[in-house]
Amino acid sequence: MTERLLVEIDHVAIAVKDLDAAIEWYALALGAEVAHRERVEHDGVEEVLVKVAESYVQLVSPTREDSPVAKFLATRGEGLHHIAYRVADCAEALEAVKRAGVRVIDEAPRPGSRGTMIAFLHPKSSFGTLVELVQEGARSPG
């Protein structure tokens, strides 16, 4: 059995076609405010984080047609994209899940938004759900 790796839920990601429309809906319908907005060029997305307690709802929209989120929207439409769990050490957590036989998308942690290190696990290994591991404060934002 793998040691307990999950610290808490970091975010739940929702893929949207129109980021500004989604922000407006969250503000009007739920009174939610944007805590962070960032364009992540290497993933071809723009994201917004809406703070909910110690976690976030991430609204994510593609910035180019070949991004994984654009492909997701084309095949599945808008909706739940992935769940992200906070871990103390992304590299250690990734190695532990690989030892447990989990299929991964990222063989090594990589920079994420807001100064994090991240790694994705393949949905075929996690009951159809794309899972992201997130380590906060792992690098300087930039």
Describe this structure in words.
This protein is an alpha+beta fold. The chain has one domain: 2,3-Dihydroxybiphenyl 1,2-Dioxygenase, domain 1. The protein has 3 helices and 8 strands; from the N terminus they run βαβββαβαβββ. The chain has helices at residues 19-30, 68-76, 90-99; strands at 6-15, 34-40, 45-52, 55-62, 79-87, 110-111, 117-121, 131-135. An 8-stranded mixed β-sheet has the order 2-3-4-1-5-8-7-6. It is globular. The protein starts with 5 loop residues before the first strand and ends in a 7-residue tail after the last strand.
Overview in brief:
This protein is 22% helix and 38% strand.
The outline comes out as globular
Q: Please tell me the CATH architecture by its name.
A: Roll
Q: Considering the protein shown, what is the CATH homologous superfamily?
A: 2,3-Dihydroxybiphenyl 1,2-Dioxygenase, domain 1
Total beta strands: 8
Q: Report strand %.
A: 35-45%
**Class from secondary-structure proportions:** alpha+beta
Helical stretch count?
3
Q: Write the H/E string, N to C.
A: EHEEEHEHEEE
Write the layout of secondary structure elements.
Layout: E1 6-15, H1 19-30, E2 34-40, E3 45-52, E4 55-62, H2 68-76, E5 79-87, H3 90-99, E6 110-111, E7 117-121, E8 131-135
Features:
single chain; 142 residues; alpha+beta; 2,3-Dihydroxybiphenyl 1,2-Dioxygenase, domain 1; 8-stranded mixed sheet; 3 helices; 8 strands; globular
